[in-house]
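Troubleshooting entry. Yesterday's outputs looked truncated, so today I'm pasting the complete records for two proteins to confirm everything comes through intact. If either block looks cut off, that's the bug. Protein one:
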Amino acid sequence: MSFKTLIAYQKSFNLAMEIFTISKTFPNDEKFALTSQIVRSSRGVCSSIAEAYRKRDYVKHFKSKLTDADSENSETQLWFDFALACDYISSDDYSRLQHKSEEVGKLLNFMINNPEKFGTKI
């Protein structure tokens, strides 16, 4: 089994790619601020899930990496707020992205609370 089979990874990867595409429409003067931050944090969710999966032999490490993913997911939601407030995304885009991010958060919390379902040794 691979981390790529995890629903949380798949959904977070798809969300990160959608964010990357949308961020291309942000103004150039946001390139080193909002654009890089929202892309980085959304990709951080995926990478932390991948790292957690490789640490699943150690429950505390597994949970720690998943809480990192959850933190990155929350940070991504913050950047949605800025993108909306600056009129870089529509309220419809905001709602859709926020919903997808919340879904990823629920999956992460399930993994954190049920590590044994993901091959950890308790």
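Protein two, checking that the full record survives here as well:
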Amino acid sequence: MEGKVTSIKDVFEQNIPIKEPEIVDALIPDMKHEVLDVSIVQKQTDAGEITKFKIGVVVGNGDGYIGVGIGKSKQMRFAIDKAVADAKLNLTPVRRGCGNWECPCGQPHSLPFTVTGKSGSVRVTLIPAPKGIGLVGGAVAKTLLTFAGIKDAWVVSRGETRTTINFAGAVYEALKNTYRFKQ
């Protein structure tokens, strides 16, 4: 609010932690979110079971920034709000490029190189594809890559990918690994 940071790029270049989701709202106004997974979890107490909703959400602007979050609450609306806030706090930049040797275009439509991510038993490898191939992978991976602004990629996955949260987490970790080193 004081105007010291004017863009989200400054936040990541200076390695400043994002501690409030309202910061992301102010710096990236066109942020969209989508619910990935809804599950019901229970906790046993001496009075019986307590049932809550567990929601997995992805946020992104379709232009190189993505976040994944989880929220739990007794009411679904509050769980979604918590998950969106968590995803905004977990926002990360995604490096895009044209990393396939078959594609000479040089536009940022794919990944610059092959990356791998792991969450739980799921291991995901994202491979850059030439222009026009599209997103070849599961529905959850397609959603995350679309929110990150990637149009062409191959997704190779191993493990129990039916566990949506782990699959989304593995794709998120792979996208996060695109910014592991600075060029």
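Both blocks look complete. Sanity check on protein two: Residues 76-89 form the longest helix (14 residues).
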